[in-house]
Amino acid sequence: MSIWQQTTGKGMPLLLLHGWGMNATVWEPVLDQLNRQYEVTRLDLPGHGYSEVDDGSHTLAAWAQAVAAIAPDNAIWLGWSLGGLIALQAAVKQMKSMRALYLMTATPCFARRNEWQCAMPITTLDQFAENLDKDTQGTLLRFLSLQIKGCDDARGLLKKLRAGFSAHPNATDAALKAGLGFLRDEDIRSKLGEISIPMHWTFGERDTLVPACASEFIEQALPDATVQIIKGAGHVPFLSHSGECMESLDTLAGRTAT
Known about the structure:
The structure is a single chain. The protein is α/β, with parallel strands linked by helices. Helix content is 42%, strand content 16%. It contains 10 helices and 7 strands. It has a 7-stranded mixed beta sheet with strand order 1-3-2-4-5-6-7, with helices on both faces. Strand 6 (199-204), helix 8 (214-221) and strand 7 (226-230) form a beta-alpha-beta unit. The longest helix has 15 residues, at 242-256. The protein is globular and about 50 Å long. The model has no long low-confidence stretch (mean pLDDT 92).
């Protein structure tokens, strides 16, 4: 497995993990701001962009291990969406020395269960998987549209997402299917208590993929974690409300400074 990465800026180490079907260039609109205070490492997830992955390595554990292998030591891991699930997996398994976790519009369980309704219907994820076989590009573009649904300046946000989406090579079909499988099948809720490092969770008030009501579970399960719900934000608050996200990141970094 070969992971593409790029490091810029100076300061406290920060690792950025993008979401399903995307690549490292999705962070471009906020990179200059981050570079002023952090040593920022961006990467393409396995099978996404310029990163390669063996056919037999499409498991959440294998993806998390591949990311941990190239991650800087003692960094803040900022995982957006699927990237958050991978960061949680790495933290639970203690795959790398981490300073803190910033989970952005992420959740320990993306799909609904009988006792877990603050998530996407499994049928939605199954439909995406089925549509991938028929029209991969169209399915990915529809997924981008869901991420900004209900947001102010939805057209501008979609333009930014599409720019990042097209800057690196498309994710492989195998990686896309594996990622959807992680979102549908993985459930780390019972393991959150095993994570001892500081955590911050950001949810979007209008997020249709990770409903903000999931914050209630996080507050109960992790009383030491900090949680915010950004009003008017959808699934990409780092693009729509970058100032609020940057402020919460700086606060988290301040909590871990020595």
